[in-house]
Write a structure and sequence with these properties.
The complex is a heterodimer.
Chain A: E1 5-14, E2 22-32, E3 37-41, H1 48-56, E4 63-68, E5 71-72, E6 80-83, H2 95-105, H3 110-123, H4 139-153, E7 157-161, H5 169-186, E8 189-194, H6 197-203, E9 206-211, E10 216-222, H7 237-257
Parallel strand pairs in A: 3-8, 3-9, 6-7, 7-8
Antiparallel strand pairs in A: 1-2, 1-4, 4-5, 9-10
Helix pairs in contact in A: 2-3, 2-4, 3-4
Chain B: H1 2-10, H2 31-54, H3 66-79, H4 81-113, H5 115-128, H6 137-144, H7 148-172, H8 176-184, H9 189-226, H10 232-241, H11 245-273
Classes of the chains: A alpha/beta, B mainly alpha.
Chain lengths: 267, 282
């Protein structure tokens, strides 16, 4: 079976004003198998978000192709559901209205919408908050709403762009645990962007380490930590060994990259 | 808008659940003292006015006493002239303002999302914007006479451009990531427009309409002062012509109260239309 997501020799150049064109991604190839949880790990500005935006169809590669089930992605692709770092919730809609949005766009009848939305609101533990507006919720709760919103729309792939980066450490841990639980029970394919080695180790089946400017794949490391997984996996010896291994790949990338500009496509 | 946010901050949660966001300020505690100060300042002002006119320090030719103004207000209320003037002016404002909204809100949206429309309209908008509405009075009288349609035209001509600017700015300020998110969830162009762009820009459009409403009032008054038999502007101008300053002042107070009431109604309508907004502003 072909991979569900693939990037074939993808390069992406940005032209910002009259400046020299910026090569954000160079000759990147990547395959994601169905049901796999892949983390794209790299420092800020290494082109991770650009890669994700190409899979979502928000931007097109300058060279090469991105494929969903062997078909090129040429426009915004609802089968690749995106969870944004900034939540991107519709603040004029209630939790219920947000979660139902994708179903409504698919033309699902009202009663069925209600039923499915209720299921996913329960799944992310927001029962009782259906009629609240996003502005009434905390950051962690808002990110749960985006998760429920995208899960209810039932895309084939989840593209997650540092979704927990804005959360405090404890909330982040809880969210990682819930994502593990949801992904392991639903078997969804996930491409998850992060700059946290720990997050990648906790979540991923495979860690794709990216180097910066231009963004390219530096190493692909399988993560054989046992599943079903729990955040307490961080206490195991195997985890520490893997972390050292990832750090070897990432370490020298992170230090100079702090001074680099962020990719212009990023919001 | 600020006051609706304050309401949100003091209102107790509707259910016992934590909202996850602490309510910050407590303006409620200061309210009784503030009310006392307000009444006090008005009282002192009225007393000073009374003393100044009573002592003969200011001649009644230049400023009638509070008692005279009150007596004239009662007389005009009894005769129905004041209420009639308020209703006539309000009707003109409402007609011209509604027309401005009906024309300028859709036009602003089209200009915001479709650049050729922006390019076509831009020169006219730039040239028309600096013109105060009174400069339209000669032409509108020539075209429409001095009847109702001329007053409505003046209100419309003085208002629509502000509605246009606020609409244009609000629509262009919609966060593009929300549009991306909607498309990613399968929204069509039409759904993006009705489900995202319109509701996301609605608070800005309504804020613009509220500001324009006050501008509409100043338009109608200038039109009524120049050529009208009825309305608050005409009432004031007739008072001036007859040297009846009490009527002038009654007319001015009438305008203030009418505009305040209109603002209050607009505020209520806004809260009704934008239930999510009261949680958003800090």
């Amino acid at each position: 079976m072909p991979p569900i997501l693939a990037a074939e020799h993808v390069s992406k150049t940005f032209q910002v004003g009259r400046d020299e064109p910026l090569l954000a991604v160079r000759n990147l190839s990547l395959q994601v198998e169905e049901g796999e949880f892949v983390c794209l790990l790299g420092a800020s500005g290494c082109g991770k978000t650009t890669v994700l935006n190409m899979f979502a169809g928000f931007t097109q590669p300058t060279q090469g192709r991105v494929l969903l089930r062997d078909r090129p992605i040429t426009g915004i692709e609802p089968r690749c559901g995106v969870v944004f770092q900034s939540y991107a919730l519709f603040h004029w809609k209630t939790v219920q209205g947000n979660v139902e949005f994708g179903l409504r766009m698919q033309g699902v009848a009202r009663a069925e919408r209600r039923r499915r939305a209720a299921h996913f609101i329960e799944l992310v533990k927001l029962g009782g908050f259906e009629r609240r507006y996003p502005a009434e919720l905390s950051g962690g709760m808002q990110q749960r709403v985006t998760l429920a919103r995208i899960l209810a729309a039932d895309p084939e792939v989840l593209l997650m762009d540092e979704p927990f980066a804005a959360l405090d450490a404890m909330t982040r841990q809880v969210m990682q645990e819930e994502l593990l639980r949801i992904q392991e029970s639903s078997g969804k394919t996930v491409l998850f962007i992060t700059h946290s080695i720990d997050e990648a180790l906790i979540l991923a089946d495979r860690i794709v380490v990216m180097s910066a400017l231009p963004g390219q794949v530096k190493a692909i490391l399988p993560n054989r930590l046992p599943r079903p997984r729990h955040v307490s996996v961080q206490l195991s010896a195997e985890y520490a060994r893997l972390k050292a291994e990832v750090w070897k790949e990432v370490g020298f990338e992170v230090r100079p990259a702090d001074a680099l500009p962020r990719s212009p496509d990023r919001r | 808008m600020a006051s609706s946010a304050a309401h949100g901050a003091v209102a107790p949660p509707r259910t016992g659940r934590p909202t996850g966001r602490p309510t910050g300020r407590r303006p409620g505690r200061r309210a009784p003292l503030a009310l006392l100060l307000k009444c006090g300042s008005v009282g002192v002002f009225l007393l000073a006015w009374y003393a100044a006119t009573r002592s003969g320090w200011i001649s009644p030719v230049f400023l009638p006493s509070p008692g005279d103004v009150l007596a004239q207000a009662t007389a005009l209320l009894r005769s129905g002239d004041l209420l009639n003037a308020v209703l006539v002016s309000s009707g003109r404002v409402f007609a011209g303002f509604a027309l401005a909204g009906l024309v300028a809100v859709p036009l602003g949206i089209v200009m915001a999302v479709w650049w050729p429309a922006r390019a076509i309209m831009d020169p006219f908008v730039s040239l028309l914007r600096p013109l105060p509405s009174i400069t339209w009075i000669p032409l509108t009288i020539l075209w429409l006479g001095i009847g109702e349609s001329q007053k409505v035209a003046i209100v419309f001509l003085g208002s629509w451009i502000y509605v246009l600017f606020y609409t244009l700015a609000s629509v262009r300020r919609v966060d593009p990531i929300l549009i991306r998110a909607a498309r990613n969830l399968g929204a069509s162009d039409f759904a993006v427009m009705t489900q995202v762009i319109l509701p996301a820009s609605l608070p800005g459009i309504i804020a613009g309409l509220k500001i324009t409403l006050a501008i509409s009032w100043s338009c109608v008054l200038s039109a009524e002062m120049i050529a009208a038999q009825t309305g608050l502007g005409a009432l004031i101008w007739q008072g001036k012509d007859w040297g009846d300053l009490a009527t002038v002042l009654v007319g001015m107070v009438g305008i203030s109260i009418t505009v305040l009431v209109a603002d209050g109604l607009a505020e209520r309508l806004e809260r009704l239309l934008l239930p999510w907004e009261r949680h958003r502003r800090p």
